[in-house]
Amino acid sequence: MSDTYDFTAIETKWRQLWAERDTYRTPDPKPGDKTFFVLDMFPYPSGAGLHVGHPVGYLATDMVARYKRMAGFNVLHPMGWDSFGLPAEQHAIKTGEHPEVSTAKNIKTFRRQMDLLGLGYDWNREITTSKPDYYKWTQFIFVQMYEAWFDKQANKARPIAELPIPDDVKAAGKLAIQEYQDARRLVYFDDALVNWCEALGTILSNEEVFDGKSEQGFDVVRVPIRQVKMRITAYTERLLAGLEGLDWPEGIKDSQRNWIGRSEGVEIRFAIDGSNETVTTFTTRADTLAGVTFLALAPEHPLVASLVPPSHRAEVDAYCEAAARKSDLDRTVDAEKTGVPSGLIAINPVTGAKVQIFVADYVLPDYGTGAVMGVPAHDERDFAFAEKYGLPVVPVIDPGADTPERDAVLKGEACWTEDGIMLDPPAGTEAGLYKAGQRWRDAREAVADFLETRGLGKRVVSYNLRDWIFSRQRYWGEPIPIIHWEDGTRTSLDVSELPLTLPHVDDYKPTSYDAPALARAAGWVEVTDPQTGIKGRRELNTMPQWAGSCWYPLRFMDPKNADALVDPSKEKAWGPVDLYVGGAEHATLHLLYARFWYLALHDLGVISTAEPFSKLVNQGMLTSFAYQNARGVILPVDEVEERGEGEFVHVPTGDRVERIGAKMSKSLRNVVTPDDVVAQYGSDAFRVCLMFMGPVEGGRVWETEKAAASLKFLRRVWNYAVSGIASPAESESSAVTIATGKLVEAVTEDLDNLRLNTAIAELMKFLNAVEGQPVTRDGLLTFLRVLAPFAPHMAEELWERAGQAGSVFHADWPKADADMLRAAVETIEIVVQEGGKKRGSVHLAPQADDGLVRDASIAMLKETGRDVAGLDPARIIVVRDKKTGWVRLVNIPKVG
């Protein structure tokens, strides 16, 4: 057996043995088990495979999982694949290769790379969202939610069979009953706008549309089609309230709060001159109502189609057609706002003033009421719009005499959006609206009272969140288990009929914007009810990629169960995910949708857990070096040479360039794969290098040379351990014993708090302290167990060489002797406060008596120049730790 550290041979050996011995198999929990569920956001298996930045989160969870398993927990640490997705379908359209085939190839690459990194997943629990045995249960959840309604009084979902149906609805027949149920179901059908590109023959997401065109430059138009929606808005208040109990980064919580966008305000009705119709707007600033000088409607607002007079119809239609070529993002970015007069006039309900109604594409149909009131004097967007179209500016808030812009604001020449008091109401305003001189917040309530009293408006709570457009006009997704019958009724499939599998098609493109690729599978689409003979058609849309990831933690608990989504006893035993690690880019949609599904399943009694993820950590982004020329153009790294210290030259042009950090990408040719690093330095060195770079949540800049330093450290570890195994000491110095105890104590605390970089620093500190000194067998085994989560291949090899049976990961995590460590402490630093402010510190024995502590503190104050004459030592408070009795703090009253 060679004493040389041959990392390739060692790591290859242990990867094979772990697989053969099924080392990481997770048993189902037994009563009394301490459980720990640690989970990575499972990846979409792209064709590119992993680069060195992807494993930051995977390595973090792996190290914690290994530690927790050794600490006596039954640890669930699985991995799977979010394998439905647009890239595989686009590849199929280009090449004709079925998405299932390309996805399987990509998964094989990902799994090989994960094994290469020594990630200790229980592959017996592997799941793939695009496999029928998994998406059977995604479809099952869909059916549960479709066959449910939201009871507003109970504030929860209930089975649709429990929905009371009024007698007059029953009398009207089954279609009336269906319509009544649909208005309350958690899943329902409704029209929604989509981005259709005829040239590509596909529907694009908002992120794929640029200035009304596809990435390839083809025209994109917005068209309405029938879509499946999920009533996530029913859960807005519970989604907000649930955030309070989660151990998540505050930034992520704020992102969810902002996405939900709860606003308290007033809905106000404006009469339309010469019509019985009204326009309803929502505002959080009812105090500015008297300053409204125009209204703006979304191009899709129903009044645009029904009320615009012939004199303005051609111009409005042309404007609406142009708006249909823009994505929501294009319409709402901070560009110049446009509109067109509708020919309609609204009446301000409190001043009686007639104001123009515009059609404006910056107003979206699905936000608020699809209509906004324009207050140019107190809204910057409205002010710019009013200037552009020559509209009046009527101020209602006084900025105050000390404000330089006051004169311009009062003249209608400037916009004021800050605090202020109310001006006299404009001429014609009804009496009692508000009082001049009131703070605007008080006036806001007064105006709301005024409107409600007269039936002109009502207080409401509004949300930015809209119901989830769930269906996709794609092939590669879960088929939606709904049948539309020729008599107008609609039914969901029973669980016994699931999974409804994807049919074979020869072309993956939609046939038109309202006929997805599944329409090509006529034999699959057309069905006949065997009992009644009624003909029907299956739903042609598929589910979004989000669907499979909304519930996947549950399937990891019971992945082979053919009869249920998850065994209730297993779900209750594992509970919510204890540690969930992934990118901050999933702050809203994935996390929000998963929380919504869990709440609904909890309401319906399917699961006992109401929240999926107890603790969330977002790993930081890893960047690599790239190069930028004087014009700011990013250049491929293989076109740049270093010539001299810190001097970089773009070889094709000879220009000097600047080295910067940039995201790894193929176009920059700065992608580094873990395969390359592991081949050169080993998996354990890569693990230590990546985690030592900084906190899990922090950013990193990859430099391959840093892996060499980690390998050098591990060679020292190897030599120290091999020497100790070959010649263990019968006894070791107290310094080595104390250093070992301190290592256990520090690394345990760091692992509990996910401070992996400082844990590795403690390993380095320990090695510096004990290298070259005798070590006992027990001391060495303790060290190997602490090393194991970070360098698992090396630790396993050394554990075996030390004569230990079984895996090091089945050994117990060591415990520090707290009494020994405390006894070894000779002095501690004690902070001294005077008058509540830190003045310095003193160093004394931890068990120093109060008299000695007071004398030392007074002497320290005297040295700093404080006048301690007349200070009564009895008034000095010595604060001690309740557990250890050590002095923690000294509080001295303020002295002269």
Kindly describe this structure.
Strands 10, 11, 12, 13, 14, 15 and 18 form a seven-stranded mixed sheet that branches. The mean pLDDT is 92. It contains 29 helices and 35 strands. The longest helix has 22 residues, at 705-726. The protein is an alpha+beta fold and 896 residues long. The protein starts with 6 loop residues before the first helix and ends with a strand.
Task: Give the key terms.
single chain, 896 residues, alpha+beta, 7-stranded mixed β-sheet, 6-stranded mixed β-sheet, 35% helix
Q: Quick check: average pLDDT?
A: 92
> How many strand elements?
35
pLDDT < 50 stretches = none
Give the overall shape, derived from the CA principal axes: globular
Please estimate the helix content: 25-40%
Rg on CA atoms, Å = 34 Å
What structural category characterises the helix and strand content? alpha+beta
Q: How would a textbook summarize the main sheet? A: 7 strands, mixed
Kindly, what is the distance between the CA atoms of the first and last residues, rounded to a whole number of angstroms?
74 Å
Strand content: 15-25%
Count of separate DSSP helical elements: 29
